[in-house]
Amino acid sequence: MSEHEATTIPEHLQPVAAALRDRYPDLSITPKPGDWLEVKVEADASPEFFRYIKDTPGLGFDYLLDVTAVDYINEGKLQVVYHLARMGADARKRGKLVVKVDVPRDNARVRTVVDIWPTADFLEREVYDMFGVVFEGHPDLRRILMREDWVGHPLRKDYVDHRPKRTRVTR
Amino acid sequence: MGLITHEAVPGVVTTSLRRLLNWSRKSSLWYMLFGIACCAIEMMATGASRYDFDRFGMIFRASPRQSDLMIVPGTVNEKMADRVKVLYDQMAEPRWVLAMGGCAINGGPYHGEYNIVDGVDKVIPVDVYVPGCPPRPEALMHGVLLLQDKIMREGIEIPAPARR
Ligand code: SF4
What we know:
The complex is a heterodimer of chains A (about 170) and B (about 160).
Chain A: H1 14-23, E1 29-32, E2 36-41, H2 46-55, E3 63-72, E4 77-85, E5 96-104, E6 109-111, H3 120-131, E7 134-136
Chain B: E1 4-5, E2 13-14, H1 17-26, E3 31-32, H2 39-47, E4 60-61, E5 69-73, H3 78-90, E6 96-100, H4 101-106, E7 128-130, H5 137-152
Parallel strand pairs in B: 3-4, 5-6, 6-7
Antiparallel strand pairs in B: 1-2
Helix pairs in contact in B: 1-5, 2-5
The structure holds iron/sulfur cluster.
């Protein structure tokens, strides 16, 4: 833990933490530098949780900044990370939310959030492409960056490059 | 210019057809309007008024079928490689390729990455390599002058270094 890291939840984020604890008493909530609150959620609880943080007045996290993932290969898990902010009625309230969902590496599946935040469409396709996380219920889960016939998911730490060696072309 | 001027008859120039062809080709190198990464910005700067490619007879064409020179300004990734090849195949002979920047030469800062073709010369033949990240317009112009040298020597035996 860095020395700059806040250990207590700052005052302006207290209502957020309170609203979260209200519904999920056991939730681990950690403040992070840069006005972030970090929350860890179980994969099977996540769809309902995301609905809650978007629709509850006082929370109102209606803007999905990013979906990404981290490969913790030594622990055999992938961590799907959601970054959330507020743009609607609660836009003037400071503070952002980072939600982390752990899934096993060999069966990486989470529910899609496209029905909650439509912007998740491309973001989840990228995480699928790079990490092989399957987003169940996604309307169009195809690769987005790599070629469609690509083998493997390049940002996994055990990714093996299967490409044949190319040689120099001359006239 | 390599032309043989005939002092005896004013206004008359004798040369070989080969030289005349090469001279006209090198003097109107139309390059393709095409950029694939950050180096393209520097290529645009070279084409714009401050450095002014026009004075070499170089103007960009928005169609590969009207282009003589393909400047490859940027990172060639696996998806783009097929497109670069298609564009090259659409260009009419004679055609030349200039690899601009570290990326187009051998992958540059992305050498060995999972989605990067390590140099555009793995896809199409390259005539001139201009190193840099990105190369300055001066470097790109130097590359073009080298290419002009090369064009002047095409089909003719001139001991290198050739005279401009
Ligand atoms: S060589 Fe450098 S400037 Fe040029 S495309 Fe590559 S990274 Fe960008």
